[in-house]
Amino acid sequence: MPCGSCRQRQYQQGFGLVETAIAALFFAVSVLGLLQYHQRLQQAFVHQWQQRQAWHLAYQQFAIYAAGRGGEALTLFERDLPPGWQLALTEQYPTAACLRVSSTVTTPQHYQACLYRWFCFTDTNRRTVPEGN
């Protein structure tokens, strides 16, 4: 006997609109968090690579300088240098018998790698880089 005031309940199966919207929002926030994390990792990797490359270039400048090519070290590197990188090679004579050479490489993110090397001479009249140093 069906009665007009009695209604049978119908049960819903699956997800409703509210649950789906909350799940989509949670998914979007999770994806944005992962993308930001990936971006930070990539920036850290680029920074670390640039630091390593800067130290390598500074050391290479000294190798060319010590090979007796002097000021050529700077010009050899500048033409192969990526945009935004800077090189500096300076010579100072703090004493008559010694020469202090510094090699500075600056990355696009303004990290500086500075190396210093001393060359001391037995003959103070001869101010060329000694062989084998």
Considering the chains and any ligands shown, give keywords for the structure.
133 residues, alpha+beta, three-stranded antiparallel β-sheet, 45% helix, rod-shaped
Give the number of DSSP strands: 3
Structural class: alpha+beta
Major sheet details: 3 strands, antiparallel
Biggest sheet, strands in spatial order? 1-2-3
Amino- and carboxy-terminal Cα gap: 109 Å
| Helix share bin | 40-55%
Unreliable spans are none
Q: What is the H/E order?
A: HHEEE
Domains (count) = 1
| Mean pLDDT reading | 82
Q: How would you describe the shape?
A: rod-shaped
Q: Total helix count? A: 2
This entry's quaternary arrangement is single chain
The rounded Rg comes to 33 Å
- What share of the residues does DSSP label as strand, in percent? 15-25%
Organism: Symbiopectobacterium purcellii
InterPro entries: PpdC-like_C
Domain Prepilin peptidase dependent protein C-like C-terminal: 37-120
Protein name: Potassium:proton antiporter
